[in-house]
Fold each of these.
Amino acid sequence: MSITTGGQYDAGISTNTEWAIAVHFDDADELLMNDCYIRGAAQNSTYATRTTSIGVKYNTCTGMRIINSGIFLVGKGVEVTGQSEGGIFQGMTVVGVTSGFHFYDLVLPANNHTICDTHVSAYHRGIDFSQVGDVANFAQSNYINSCFIFEREPSASKPDWIGINFWTRYSTISDCTIQSNTTSTTNTTAIRLLTFQNIVSNIITFNQAVPIFAIAYGGLTARLSNIWSAGSLIPVAMVAGDASSTTSVGVDSGDNQLTLQHRASLHRFSSTGGTSLVELGLTALFPSSDNTYALGSSTRSWSNVYGANFRPGNRTAIWTSGTGSPEGVLTAVVGSLYTRLDGGVNTTLYVKQSGTGNTGWAAK
C-alpha cells in the first residue's frame, strides 16, 4: 500500500496539498499494516514549515501492528491515544516528522507497546510517551529496542529536542543509538524518563547536552547500565526531583553496585547492594554515616589532599597554615595547630593553648 499527498485537507497549511490523517483506526482490534509507504507534504522537509498531519492514528485499538513500512514528511508518524494496547511497530523508517511516535491521552489499560528495529529522524521528539496526570495511571510494560533516533535539524532552531520521552512505568529501553544533529547544546536530551522502575541499558548517545535525564517519582529508581556517551555536556545521567520533597528518588546501575539518589537538596551515592556511602548537600560532601567509612586504605592512598582546615579526632580542633602569626587573627579552640609558611626558628609551628577566640596562640 502506498499513500501520498492529495487526500483529506489539513487546515494547518495554506494549500490543499496534504491530508490531515493518512490512515485512521478507531475502536478496532488486530490490525496489520505490512510493507506500506506513506508520504506527506514537502512543507515537512524543514522544521519551520512543518504541518500537523499524521501518518497513522490509532484510538482505542488493540493488537496494532506496522511492519516493514515507511512514513515520511508528516507532522507525526504514528499517534496512539485512548484505550490502545499491544502495539508492535517493527522494521520501520519514520523520517521528516515532528514526532516519530506519540503516545498520549491514554486511558488504562493502555499498555504493552513495542517499538523495535526502527529508524526515526525527527525535529522535536523521536519517540514520545507524554501522558499527563496521575503517574500511577501511566502506561506500563512498554519496550523500545534496537532503534536509531536522529535529530533532523540543529537544536538552535527549536525549543528543545528529546530522542525518547519515556513517561511510563515498568518499561525498558535497550540497544539504541540516539544522535543530535550538531555538537551538543543545552536543549538536547537523549532519554528523559520517570524513575518508576524503568530500565535503560546498552545505549549510545552522540552530541547530547544530557544523555539520560531521570525525573523523580515516589522514592523509586530507574536502572541504568552500559551507557556510552560522546560529545555531551554532562556525564551519563542527572536526576531531578521536587525540591520540596523528602522522598528519595534516583537511578542505579541495575547490579546493586552504584546508585545515585536525589532528595530535596541532597544527592546520595550508594554501592554494594544499596548501602549508602556518600551524600552531597548544598554546601558539603559527607559520608552517609558517622565514623564508618575510610578515605583510602593502607595500600591505596591519595597522592595529595587539599583543604583549608583539617579537623581530626572529635572535629573541633583545626590544623591549618598561612603567612604571618595567627595571634589575634585566627579563631580556634584549644589544641589547634597552625603552620606558618613564612616562619623561622621557633616561629614556624603555633599551638592554641588558651581561650576560644583568636588569641592564646603560642609559637613553638
Note: The CA atoms of residues 128 and 165 lie 5 Å apart.
Amino acid sequence: MAYFVAIIMLTILTVEDIKEKEISVTLAILFIVSGLALALVRDNGFSVDIIYSILPGVFLLAVSIITNGKIGAGDGLALIGLGAAIGALGAIVAFVIGILLAAGYGAAKMLRKKIRGTAALPFLPFLLTGTIFVAVGT
C-alpha cells in the first residue's frame, strides 16, 4: 500500500516537474502528510523510525538551501514524503538509483551534445523510476 501511494504521488509530482520545471508546494506537503499517515499506521503510532525516514529528504532540502537552489527544494520535499511513506532505507536506495540514472542520462545527453554541463534536469522522473525499482525488488 505504501509503495502504491508513493508511486501515485511521485507520478503526479513528476508530471508537474517535467511540465513546469518545479513542483507545487501544496502537492509536496500533501505527499508528506500522506507519507506520515502511512508511517503512523506502519509503526503503530509515532516512533523514532519516522524521524529517521524523513532525514534523507531533510538533508536534500538543506543542500538545496546551501546551494542556493541548484538542487530544487521540491526534490527534498518529495524525498521527505517518500521516506515517510516507504521508510529510510527504501528512500535512500530509490534516491541513489535516481542519481545514477540521472547521471547516466545527463552524460548521454552531453555526449550527444544535446545539453551543456550546466543544464538543469528534472530529478523526480529518476526518483520515481528508482522507487519503482525498489518496489519491484521488495
Note: The radius of gyration is 15 Å.
Amino acid sequence: MTALDKSQYVHEIIIPCSDMYRAYIKKNILAHSAIQKKVIFVSGGKERVHSVHNAIRKVSSSATHILVQDAVRPFLQTATIMHLVRALGKADGVIAARLVVPTLKEVKGKRILSTVDRNSVVGSRNPSNFLRKKCLQVHFEK
C-alpha cells in the first residue's frame, strides 16, 4: 500500500474484504504504517469480480481513473502506477505486463500441439487501470 499512498495519481484506497480481514488490516497493517491517503473498506465478494464491483461503487465521483490492484501481489511500485496513468491516454483501460521468458507450449490433454510464439504473448500483471467512466459502464450498465 506504500506505493499507492506515495503516488500522486492515487487519491483514495478502497479495500474490499471480509469483516475478519478488515479488523486484521486495521490492527496489523494500517496501525503500523504511515498511510496518509483516505482508506475505505467495503465488503468483499464471493469472487474477485464481485469484490472489485463493490469497491468501484465507492470510488469518489471526482475520480477520473480506477486502478485495480490485488493485495496478494504486494510489490507494486509508484513508477508502475505512473506508466499506467500515462498509457491510459491511448485506451479505455491498460494492464501492466512483461515479456514472457519461459517456453510456452499449446497442449490438448497430454499432447503438445505446438510451441507458442513468445512475441505474440505477454504476462499480465497487476494493477489494471481504467477510465472511471468506462469502468462504470462495464460494471453497471446492462
Note: The beta strands are 12-17, 38-43, 65-68, 93-99, 104-108, 111-116, 122-131.
Amino acid sequence: MGWFTAQDMRRLGAAWRGGVAGACLALASHAQAGDGSTGYRVDHRFIAREGITPSGGLVSGLAGQLYGVTEAGGAGPGEGCGTIYAVDPSSGREHTLHRFTGEDGEGCLALGTLWRGPDGSLFGATYNGGSGHAGTLFSLAPDGTFTTLHAFSGDADGQGPNGSLVRAADGRLYGTTAQGGAHGRGTVFALAPDGTFQVLHAFRHGDPLGEAPASGLTVGAGNVLFGTAADGAFGVGTVYRVDMSGTLGLVHAFKASEGTFLGSLTAASDGALVGVAVGGGAEGAGTLFHLQPDGQLVTLHDFSGGVDDGAAPRDAPIEVSVGVFYGTTLGNGDDVPGTVYRFDVASSSMATLHRFGRAPGDGRWPVGPLAVGADGRLHGATMRGGNLKLQGQGTGTVFRVGG
C-alpha cells in the first residue's frame, strides 16, 4: 500500500484538476451526507465559479463566517487561479471575496490556511504567479481591497511559498518557501508591516536542519517559531526552530520508525509541539507525535491504515481541550478518502469520528487543520468530493463536526 509524500500533498489537488470549463450547474449547498452520532454535516459544496479544490484549512471571523482559499476555479487562465471565499456555516451560503487572475502581477494557485489580523484583514500566499512567476504574499482588507505584499522572484528570496503565514510577537509575518533561495532548497522568511522582506535562512542540500520546508511555521512557547523540513540526518524529515532574531536550530531529526514526510505542527497547552507524519511509523501509515522543544519525542499513535483507523495524516490536529486533539487523515485501508479523528493523550485513545466519501455528496481528502468556529463546532474543508457531477472527483466541500 503506497501513501502520499509531502510533495504529493502540495500537488494533490492540482493533479486532479480538469474539465470544469463551463460547469456552472449548482447542486444543493447543504448535505444529504451526515452522521448524526458525531454531528457531521457538509455545509457547502463548491461550484466552478466559486473556486474548486480548497487548498487549506478555515479561519473563523468575528461574525462567525469561515474563510478559506481554493487553488483553482474562479477566474484566470485555464481552469482558474483560485479564490478567497467565505462560508456562513448557519446557512451554507458561500460568498466569493476575491478571484485570482494570475495577471498584472497577481498570484495564482492559492495555498494554505489564511491568517486573520485583529482588524479582520486576511493574509495568505499563492504558490505560483506574481511578477516573478514564483508565488506571492497577499492581503485582503475587510472592505475588499486586495494587495500583493510581495512577489517572489524564484531566486534568493525563494520560490513557491508553502501557504500558511503566521504573525509573531514582533508584528512580522513569517513563512517558508519550498524551493528557491540562495541554494535552491527553500527559505524561511519574514515580512514586516512596512513591507520589508527578509530571508532568515536559505536551506541547502545536506543541511542538518533539513531542506525543502514541508509546511508553514507555528508559534510555540516563548514566541519561538517551529517548522518542518525534508531530509535531515536520517533522510526522512526534521523539526527546526527560529527565534525572533532569525537564528535557526535543529529540534529533532526523524527516523523512519518515528515518521516520514512530516506535516504541520501545533503548539500544545503543555508547551510542547504535536505534529504528524504522512508516512513511516510502526505500520508505515503515518504517526501522531509529541515533541518537546528540547527534542524529546514520544509517538502518540501509529496509524494503521485499517478500517477503524486512518492513514497519511498531513495536517496537525488542534487541541480543543487539555490533551484532547482533533484532526484528519487522507485515507485508510478501506479505500476511504480521509477521516476525522479524536485523540485523548491521557488515555492514549484514538477514535474515528467520520470516514469521508461513504455517502453521496460527501467530501474527499480533507485539507488543512480543523478550526473551532464561533458556534463552538469544528469546521474543515475537503479538496474533492461534493459536486461529483461537475467534475469526476468533485469540486470540494466545507464541513462541520459537532452537534
Note: DSSP finds one helix and 31 strands in the chain.
